[in-house]
Amino acid sequence: MYLPDPDFVHTFAGNPLDRAQHLRKDDAALSTLRHAKDSQYILFHQLKVATDAQGNLAWLSRARLNSEQLGEAQMSIELGQEVFLGLANGRGHFAVDLILPKHSQVPESLQPIAKFTDCRQAVSCLSQAQGGIVSQARAALDWHQRNPYCAQCGQPTKASRGGQIRHCQSCAKHTFPRTDPVAIMLIQDDAQGDFCLLGKSQGRMAQSNFYSALAGFVDQGESLEEAVRREVMEEAGIRVGQVSYHSSQPWPFPSSLMIGCHGVALNKNIVIDPEEMADVAWCDRPSVLAAIAGENPDLRIPGPGAIAYHLIKAWALKEAATPQP
């Protein structure tokens, strides 16, 4: 198997917060934390995260979010969904959706917020730990936005347990957040593995030289290994033998878990699905190594923020023993 460094943590993972499950059913304890002077709040607007002038997360105290502070802005500002993220050194950490009037700027009363930044862009400037917190917060707030009504009876639902679930007061159904498993795989041509299988999807990148590992959602009643084999067959017409796990990466857009694998092909003749894939190709190790170094004008691959990069790099650098068919 190609194994990552045991100390390596993917972008959007590494959240250091204690999610404090023992507090989530205690409304009084959560209320105390919510209004504690040392509790920290990170704001989001349209799923973009609040950052300061240096690109760091702009944490605020509860006092900065009270009605008087918001009123000073002389604007129609609302605090929307609030989510309890967890504890760090006993301090509560929360995420809040900020509702601003259209085309308005961040009010001075909410400094040090300089702007709201796309989360993909923000994590490039953040520590591993802060990126993990952003991942949890964005996924949670997005889930609440997408699930205002009960799937069972159609009535409005209300957040509960610090935003961990939504509760229907009509039929009493509890709705829990979902995370969608995605198999993402780097397939080599045989046991020796001098070539790997890369593809590009139909869409905005179809005419580019940008290639990545193949990927697809794990279906119901399907194992990870079965999903790898099915997706590669559907997208490239390649049968896959052994499948080995590499690592996983949370991907909060909106809420997926990318499960990275390596596999060995049992045939080499590519037959693509033209509706989904613009191209799939066998790429040799020298060309991939050049792409990793940014020195291949004919091939671009994902950057280090994506698990695909690490799957490709592990194969290209032969970071561990080659998987056997």
What key phrases describe this protein's structure?
single chain, 325 residues, alpha+beta, Nucleoside Triphosphate Pyrophosphohydrolase, 6-stranded mixed sheet, globular, disordered C terminus
CATH architecture group name of the largest domain:
Alpha-Beta Complex
Total count of domains = 3
Radius of gyration: 23 Å
Assigned CATH superfamily of the largest domain: Nucleoside Triphosphate Pyrophosphohydrolase
Shape by Cα distribution = globular
Structure description:
It is built from seven helices and 15 strands. By secondary structure, the protein is α+β, with helices and mostly antiparallel strands. It folds into three domains: 21-140, Alpha-Beta Complex (Nucleoside Triphosphate Pyrophosphohydrolase); 147-178, no CATH class; 180-316, Nucleoside Triphosphate Pyrophosphohydrolase, CATH 3.90.79. The strands form three sheets. Strands 1, 2, 3, 4, 5 and 6 form a six-stranded mixed sheet that branches. Strands 10, 11, 12, 13, 14 and 15 form a six-stranded mixed sheet that branches. Strand 8 and strand 9 (174-175) form a beta hairpin.
